[in-house]
Write a structure and sequence with these properties.
The structure holds 2 protein chains of 2 kinds.
Chain A: H1 2-33, H2 53-61, H3 64-96, H4 101-110, H5 120-129, H6 137-159, H7 164-172, H8 177-188, H9 190-205, H10 209-214, H11 223-234, H12 238-258, H13 260-273
Helix pairs in contact in A: 1-12, 2-12, 3-6, 3-9, 4-6, 6-9, 9-13, 11-12
Chain B: H1 4-13, H2 31-57, E1 60-61, E2 69-70, H3 74-81, H4 83-115, H5 121-135, H6 138-148, H7 154-161, H8 178-202, H9 207-215, H10 220-231, H11 233-248, H12 252-257, H13 269-278, H14 283-311
Antiparallel strand pairs in B: 1-2
Helix pairs in contact in B: 2-14, 3-14, 4-8, 4-11, 5-8, 8-11, 9-10, 11-14, 13-14
The chains are: A mainly alpha, B mainly alpha.
């Protein structure tokens, strides 16, 4: 009894220590963001006169409004289409199992561990050939393709467990495949679709490599890509850089805290399935 | 895969697939291909085609603009003989220690200790907090840590405070510490994920297994190796897979925190591919390195998957 109480205490201490290390960079960013702009602050210290104006200054310097708009447009272009076509493919491979579906599945598996660096060079020339370089389509279209292995794998994992009896019953009622998909199986797949949507939102918002390679103009990039450019431009003004980084973090953090429970479950499942 | 209930469903329903109601139209059996077509199209256009092009480029000498000349396997010969490029591949493997080994070990230790308080409010809060690094862009993590590890950053402030002022330095700018410092950033990002994953695996272990082990007189260590480890093999495999891929294909963190410097000691394959292809205009060599990277990831990840599958409970 005493033993397990002591273990409980050690557990708490360890947990608090881990949490402290996790939060430290955020605290440091915040304290530094409030130092006078252009100074070289020393370590972690609360400023005598917090400069809240740094946030406004960083917001304008980074054209944060435009960045936000750009990221939202990219997410709107990537996520709904990806989820839709991956759900359809997952349904086909996992449930309809048309002749040769095994082959289609193996084809998608090839891409599951593929690092984006493995295809980035030809992607550049491909997108250039399509005349889409430096537009948001340069990020949107390739990302949809690159998300397919994981997304199809994810949706297939749901649809292999979908009820075959339900399908048989619907078939005898004369329902065609399209109606079967939309009216019966999509509503049942809602939890899997919701988790996938959250994950793809996150992957898109934080996408960096595609953004810096395919789009030069930071205001047409994702948030992560824009942050890279912001660092290049304001890297010497540390308080401003910290303020800008925090502003760029806010949208993901907000979405995370709102959908917290879904997020943790989705990410856990996501990594388990992936 | 996560919840066991789904595999039970599968066991009930899967045989049913073979006795489907006969299809009305003969073409309906093939309708699945129409459903899969859009996904296959996008995947083929933006993944499979570039992938084959990467292999094709790797066989040529090309500056990205002018005509290309056939180079055979010479680009690969360069990748496997150039000391700088070999060093870069070596760096990726060194990063496995801090991206993969350390987070999994810390995650295991933390999860074992935390398991006993896993339902407390603190543990629930920890799940949220430890996930924060997973949610933010890696770029932001890079910026925050570049500042923490700079010569005037918190790391040095802390060291000075405990009387270690003589070892303070710009951690990311020092030849000896830059790579471990980059590794530290990766470890920070991945420790939380591993801890929460392993913790969730441990909460599913039947408590009677522990009671049985205690009755058999097993100590804490024996309990850990005989009960805990085998039960969470699947979760460990996932942690190792995810973190090894993150280590080998790291890009964002290095790009932001060191750009591969100082003197190339933190250069990794991902960043080198980017530089070769887009700064040095050596598309062929960049592509050969890309092919090697893709293969390395597969070679490292596939055995882990097979181990987990063969001996795993499912």
């Amino acid at each position: 009894m005493i033993g397990s109480r002591r273990e409980g205490f050690i557990g708490r201490v360890m947990l608090v220590a881990l949490m402290a290390v996790t939060i430290l960079p955020f605290v440091s960013l915040f304290a530094t963001a409030l130092q006078p702009s252009g100074t070289y602050p020393l370590g972690l210290q609360w400023p005598a006169h917090p400069q809240w104006g740094n946030f406004t200054q960083a917001f304008e310097a980074a054209q944060m409004g435009k960045l936000l708009e750009s990221s939202v447009l990219i997410v709107a272009g990537v996520v709904p289409v990806s989820v839709l076509i991956a759900t359809m493919a997952g349904f086909a491979i996992g449930h309809l199992r048309m002749p040769g579906s095994r082959l289609a599945f193996v084809l998608f598996l090839i891409g599951l561990t593929l690092p984006f660096e493995g295809v980035i060079t030809p992607l550049y020339y491909e997108v250039q050939g399509m005349g889409l370089l430096n537009t948001r389509w340069a990020i949107i279209l390739p990302l949809i393709g690159l998300f397919m292995p994981f997304s199809v794998y994810w949706m297939r994992a749901h649809f292999v467990t979908a009820s075959a009896d339900l399908t048989d019953a619907a078939r005898t009622d004369g329902v065609n495949t399209w109606q079967l998909f939309w009216r019966i199986h999509v509503p049942l797949a809602r939890p899997a679709i919701a988790s996938l949507t959250i994950l793809l939102f996150l992957f898109t918002w934080n996408q960096f490599l595609l953004a810096i390679v395919l789009v030069d103009d930071p205001t047409k990039r994702t948030m992560a890509g824009a942050l890279g450019a912001f660092q290049g431009q304001w890297g010497t003004n540390i308080p401003l850089l910290c303020a800008g980084s925090l502003i760029i973090l806010v949208p993901t953090l907000a979405v995370f805290l709102i959908f917290q429970r879904h997020f943790v479950v989705a990410l856990l499942q996501g990594s388990l399935k992936g | 895969m996560l919840d066991r209930s789904t595999s039970r469903h599968r066991a009930v329903h899967e045989p049913a697939g073979s006795r489907r109601v006969p299809w009305r139209k003969p073409g309906a059996r093939w309708a699945g291909w129409l459903f899969a077509a859009p996904a296959l199209g996008m995947y083929g256009l933006f993944v499979l085609r570039p992938l084959t092009l990467t292999v094709q480029y790797s066989l040529y000498q090309w500056d990205g603009i002018g005509p290309s000349t056939w180079a055979g396997l010479s680009n690969y010969a360069t990748v496997f003989s150039d000391p700088a490029l070999l060093g870069i591949i070596g760096n990726a493997f060194k990063l496995i220690i801090s991206f993969s080994v350390i987070p999994v070990l810390i995650g295991l230790a933390a999860a074992v200790v935390i398991r006993r308080i896993s339902t407390s409010r603190l543990a629930v809060m920890a799940r949220t907090v430890l996930f924060l690094p997973q949610v933010i862009p890696l770029v932001a993590a890079g910026i925050a840590w570049s500042w923490l590890l700079s010569s005037t950053g918190v790391a040095n402030q802390f060291l000075s405070a405990i009387g270690l002022a003589r070892i303070t330095r710009a951690w990311l700018g020092d030849f000896n510490t830059a790579l471990p410092a980059v590794g530290l950033i990766g470890a920070w990002v991945l420790v939380g994920l591993c801890t929460v994953l392993l913790m969730s695996g441990m909460t599913k272990i039947d408590p009677s297994l522990y009671e049985a082990a205690r009755i058999d007189g097993a100590g804490l260590w024996r309990e850990f190796t005989a009960v805990t480890l085998p039960s969470i093999r699947q979760e460990i495999a996932v942690c190792v897979t995810v973190t090894v891929i993150a280590a080998l294909s790291s890009f964002d963190i290095v790009y932001i925190s060191t750009q591969g410097g100082p003197g190339g000691v933190t250069m990794v394959p991902g960043l080198e591919i980017y530089e070769l292809a887009f700064s040095h205009r050596q598309v062929g060599l960049a592509s050969a390195l890309a092919v090697v990277l893709v293969v390395l990831v597969l070679v490292c990840v596939l055995p882990i998957q097979r181990l987990a599958r063969k001996e795993g409970p499912r």
